[in-house]
Amino acid sequence: MNDTPIFLRACKREPTEYTPVWLMRQAGRFLKEYRSLRRQHSFLTLCKTPELATQVTLLPIEKLNVDAAIIFADILLPLEPMGIDLEFTKGEGPVIHNPPRSRAEVGKLKTIEAEEDLAFVMEAITLVYRQLTGRIPLIGFSGAPFTLASYLLEGGSTKDFIKTKSLMYEDPSCWHLLMEKLSEAIISYLNAQVRAGAEALQVFDSWAGTLSPKDYEEFVLPHSQRVFRALPTKIPAIHFATGTSGILDLMHEAGGDILGIDWRIDLGKAWQRLGYNIGIQGNLDPTALLGPPERIESKVEEILHSAEGRPGHIFNLGHGVLPQTPEENVITMVEAVHRLSRDR
Ligand code: CP3
Fold it and tell me: Residue 1 pLDDT > 60, yes or no?
């Protein structure tokens, strides 16, 4: 018997009895209990109260039978101690009230000490870690420099990334200064999470696929690479983005033990392109979970088939679970991943 949880073995590309699975945003709005907690507390209160964040992190664990927990927090939290005024509004998502608009303002962004400045996240991690008692591992996470820069500069979510790309093109030195500052905060944040009990890390560069390969290489890669190189080598790191067909090899070069991909690319083909000295995570379209159980099963089977049972596949969605997803469909998916991968 091997005591190491199956998720961590898969991260090391060791063979496992079945394919481990977890879902991005598994601790969130598709869960009834989460929605009911949200009627009593704001999103930031949930994040900043370790007992509540612990409760939310654990909500999906028994219910869904997933192979990893992810700490309930947000990629935007480290921006607050850097001096950013962050709000989560109803309907609109995150709003940043004071995006930096000059080199002087970028220069004024503060350096953080994550252990103190984000102590509530570390406390939640320690509490969750204790309650999981080694059954399944806990994933810590952060945004990657580019995705954080995009929220910071746009003042919230965006479709076109105009302010972000404009800064890159118009004032590359200011861009690189901003990316350096964000990278330092991320490095502090992720290392503190590992000290608190995180056993794996995911770096979300959700919107990196919006860049041309050349721009990724010049404006993003060196910073993401610096982040990955500053992480503890013993802890597996997942490097996730969407729309990555054009930058797959560059993301590999930037770092991570496992690359997270979305459904716009065939998982088997992506893996073949990358080579098998890296793991792969993905890649069911979250919308598939709105369909009937037979469709969910056949889509799970397609992905497992594409992964060919190779060690190092972690099953996940290609992006976060949609708020309108029926809970029983997620249970169907997890059960199908376990059963169909065991049978292979
Ligand atoms: O995966 C998990 O369940 C753990 C918790 C988690 C949240 N956000 C909680 C959350 C994680 C891993 C994130 C990551 C995150 N946050 C990303 C990267 C993943 C991705 O979706 O691309 C990004 C870009 C953010 C920023 C963010 N936070 C946005 C754009 C929004 C609003 C819109 C949305 O997608 O929900 C949030 C709010 C947020 N973060 C919620 C949750 C549960 C919803 C808050 C609510 O209850 O209203």
Answer: no
Secondary structure of residue 309 in the 3-state scheme: coil
Of ligand 1's listed atoms, the one at least distance from the Cα of 88 is 38
pLDDT per residue over 55-88, tens digit each? 999 999 989 999 999 999 999 999 999 999 999 9
Active site residue 249: no
Query: How close is the Cα of 323 to the center of ligand 1, in Å?
Result: 11
Question: How confident is the model at residue 91, as a pLDDT?
Answer: 83
Domain covering 6-286+311-320, topology: TIM Barrel (3.20.20)
pTM of the model: 0.97
State which of 22, 25, 238 you would mutate to test the pocket of ligand 1, scoring each by most atoms of that ligand within 8 A of its C-beta.
25
Torsion of the alpha carbons at 158, 163, 166 and 168, rounded to the nearest 10? -80
Catalytic residue among 18, 25, 205, 226: 25
Is the pLDDT score of 174 beyond 90? yes
Phi then psi for residue 303, to 5 deg, are -70, -45
Q: Please state the domain extents for the chain.
A: 6-286+311-320
Tell me which residue of 343, 342, 344 sits closest to 6, measured CA to CA: 342
Q: Any catalytic annotation for residue 74?
A: yes
Distance 202 CA to ligand 1 centre (A): 14
